[in-house]
Design brief:
Layout lengths: L1 E4 L5 H10 L6 H10 L2 E6 L2 E9 L2 E7 L8 H12 L4 E6 L3 H6 L3 E4 L5 E6 L1
Parallel strand pairs: 4-5
Antiparallel strand pairs: 1-2, 2-3, 3-4, 5-7, 6-7
């Protein structure tokens, strides 16, 4: 598996992964982020297995194909994102995702929204 910057031709696969994770992400916004070089994809055998959409130093969306979860793909995407941003990497996420961010060394605090957290990785 390789992690690389998404290419314009990856847009349908990126949207498929995001939709499969039930994330509400606007396709035009993702297209613009791909053009800006801030969308990462994890690829094996020419297939996009996961994606991470960045907004500056913030993880805007991260998802892995359902059948490929638990195989280190999300971790690889976050590790790559952490090395590609200048400074700390941030994420807002639902409580269900907290174990994932805990395992990656994010310092986590609750937000004002129920079941939501904010994490920072220096």
């Amino acid at each position: 598996m390789d992690v690389r910057t998404a290419r314009p031709a990856d847009l349908p696969a990126v949207m498929n992964v995001l939709d499969g994770a039930s994330l509400s992400v606007d396709a035009e916004n993702v297209r613009e982020r791909i053009a800006a070089g801030v969308v990462l994809v994890a690829v094996a055998d020419g297939r996009v297995l996961g994606t991470c959409v960045l907004d500056g130093r913030e993880i805007d969306a991260i998802a892995v194909r359902r059948r490929r979860r638990g195989q280190g793909i999300g971790t690889a995407l976050v590790e790559h994102a952490a090395t590609s941003v200048d400074g700390a990497l941030w994420a807002d996420f639902h409580r269900r995702s907290r174990p994932f961010y805990d395992a990656l060394g994010f310092a986590i605090k609750p937000t004002d929204e129920p079941d939501r957290f904010r994490g920072c990785r220096e």
